[in-house]
Every structure is written in structure tokens, then in C-alpha cells.
Amino acid sequence: MKAPFERVVQRHGPAVLRVCTFVLGPLDAEDAWSDTFLAALRAYPDLADDANVEAWLVTIAHRKCVDIIRRREREALAIGDVPDRPTTIGVPGAADDQLTSAVRALPPKQRQAVAYHYFVGLPYAEIAALLGGTADAARKAASDGIATLRTHYPDALPKGAHR
Predict the structure, then answer these.
(1) Angle value at C-alpha 58, between 54 and 61, nearest 5 degrees
(2) Using 50, 70 and 90 to split pLDDT, how confident is the model at 160?
């Protein structure tokens, strides 16, 4: 027969809190601890009588910690100073419309690699994940794209970019 859930919390609560604290730090540990025991409370009636309750709770805690880490990664990050004016890159009719047209004339992989790396700032590993292939292939595509722009569209590049 299973112990009452109250006793489970009393017995294993400190261990679960330690796990959450080590994984997340003290600020988010209590939230993960609460989420763990709320989820456990819902599932406890279906838990087998001979189950390793502590291992089961640590598994739930681990998943709740991962959820909090993922939530953190999705949150907006504070940045430094915001530019004084918005960019006009890619805006039809803007002064740099020639650059947009030149980039659009590149072969697809080069166009995407140039756009993702130079205009968005993605690292080559992430570009490779989007386009398929390796980070080296993404770097080569971006490099080839910039070389093509320098050769065939020198007037489209901002001053100093075609040196």
C-alpha cells in the first residue's frame, strides 16, 4: 500500500529541492519544486505500489527543470543601446534596395547564408541546421555569396564593404 502523498512530500521534498537548486539555481528552484509535486500529485494514484518514489520524483523534477530552462531560452534578452533609427535593409524603395536586389540575385544557398549570417547574425552552425549540411558548408556559401556581391555588384555594397 502506498503512503499518503503528504508523507511522500515530507520525505522526498528536500531531495527534490536540492536537485532543482543544483540544476536551476536558487531563483527558479522553488517553482520547479512546486511544479514537480503538482504533477506528482496528479499521477500518484496511478503509480505502482512498489515503485521507487524518489527516482520517480527526481525524474519529474528533471523534466520540470528542463521546461524552465527552455522557457528561459525563449524569453527576450536585454540588449545594449538600440540603434537611433531602424534599418532599411530589405524595405522596398529604400536607399539600399540595390543591395536587396543584388542579394536576391545570388543562388539560393548563398542568398540564405548571407542573409542569415550578415543580416540576422546567426552563427554558421545554426545556418547549417536550417539549410542542411555542415557549418563549414554554410560558411563557404556565405563567403562565396559575399565574393559574388563584391565582384558583380560592387555599387550595391555599403561603402567599405567591397574592399
Answers:
(1) 140
(2) low
Instruction: Give me the pLDDT at residue 162, please.
Output: 43
Rounded Cα distance between 120 and 135, Å, is 16
Q: What is the fold, at CATH topology level, of the domain defined by 1-86?
A: Rna Polymerase Sigma Factor; Chain: A (1.10.1740)
**Residue burial 62-81, b: 16+ Cβ < 10 Å; e: rest:** bebbeebeeeeeeeeeeeee
Give me the count of residues in the chain.
163
Domain coordinates of the chain in residue numbers? 1-86, 92-154
**Amino acid found at 15:** A
| Alpha-carbon gap, residue 162 to 70, rounded angstroms | 40
Quote the distance between the C-alpha of residue 13 and its chain's center: 31
CATH architecture, range 92-154 = Orthogonal Bundle (1.10)
**What is the mean pLDDT of the segment spanning 58-68?**
90
Say whether pLDDT at 55 is over 90. no
**Nearest to residue 130, comparing CAs of 103, 106, 120, 9?**
120
* The dihedral formed by the CA atoms of 100, 157, 95 and 113, expressed in degrees to the nearest 10: 30
Helix boundaries (H) for 75-134: 97-104, 108-114, 124-131
